[in-house]
Amino acid sequence: MEHKNLEQVRQIAEEHFALPGQVREVSPFGNGHINDTFLVVCKVEGGGMRRYILQRMNGEIFKNADALMENVVHVTAFLREKIVAKGGDPMRETLTIVPTKDGKNYLKGDGRDSFRVYAFIEDAFCLEAVRNAEDFYNSAVAFGNFQYLLSDYPASTLHETIPNFHNTPDRLANFKKAVEEDVCGRRKDVEKEIAFVLERTRDCSVICDALQEGKIPLRVTHNDTKLNNVMLDQETGKGICVIDLDTVMPGSALYDYGDSIRFGASTGAEDEQNLDLVSCDLDLFAAYTKGYLEGCRGSLTREEICLMPMGAKLMTLECGMRFLTDHLQNDVYFKIHRPNHNLDRARTQFKLVADMEQKWEQMAAIVEKYL
To answer: Residue 119: which residues within 8 A CB-CB, separation 6 or more?
Structure first.
């Protein structure tokens, strides 16, 4: 990042946030695709150093920073109480918001973007990819524990930071509209992929219908349950804190579980062009299922657990549908790095869906084993 921009970040940290001591260093941190993240190092009284995370929240994606931060404040406060009650360390086990100098939870920028600061979680790390089944298991326990701790939170009081994010029937309607409009003439080359989605129309409403009919409960959901959103303890490797709460919203636990399987149990990259390399690894599926249910500690209903394979399949189908929709609309949402990049992503998801369908009985048996 340009020196000038880092100086602006330093100025924001120094002038607007209630940080202890003097800001000594500011540097880019992580590789997130939505927000810009910086590490801020402060020299505190006595000569020690303390670290913080400063983020520029992307106002193009998150258009209501007040609602987003209200969710984060309330959820982290709720988690903090639960963690303290069980003798845990809230500074390591949930995010800690550093207020602005005038007592606000974030700083409104001049334009659409806003800024916030979190305390840095020391002696912990996160992974960009699954190294082994144990990593995946540990992340599952952490996300399951997140669900367990929030199982009695009034989910309906949360704001939808991205409306209809996992409303799969709505995603399907948008997809059909993109097919019909065919704004850049790509439909003729993806008829096979379009048919793949339409053949699974009935699947798209399963979770939303179950929520609407009260068959499964409305819960607090994270909605971005990738491995890199869990902090792992430096010594033990166990998950200690779920981070990136921007998409915490009301929804189904199946969204979180399913998206983890989609991303973490696939044998191929999300944009793999050789589809022979793409399948659902049942060992990883089993490891995550075991860990997630252990972390949830009995807080899920039997109906939810029985729908876990469908959660995995539906989140994968939905993601593929979104990639294909964007391809048909001339790549206006997801960043691409080569021609037909979103089409490659869609095909990868659809191959994963097809593989799950082939392994359906095995997936159901694994879930039943841990029930």
So the answer is: 52, 53, 91, 95, 96, 98
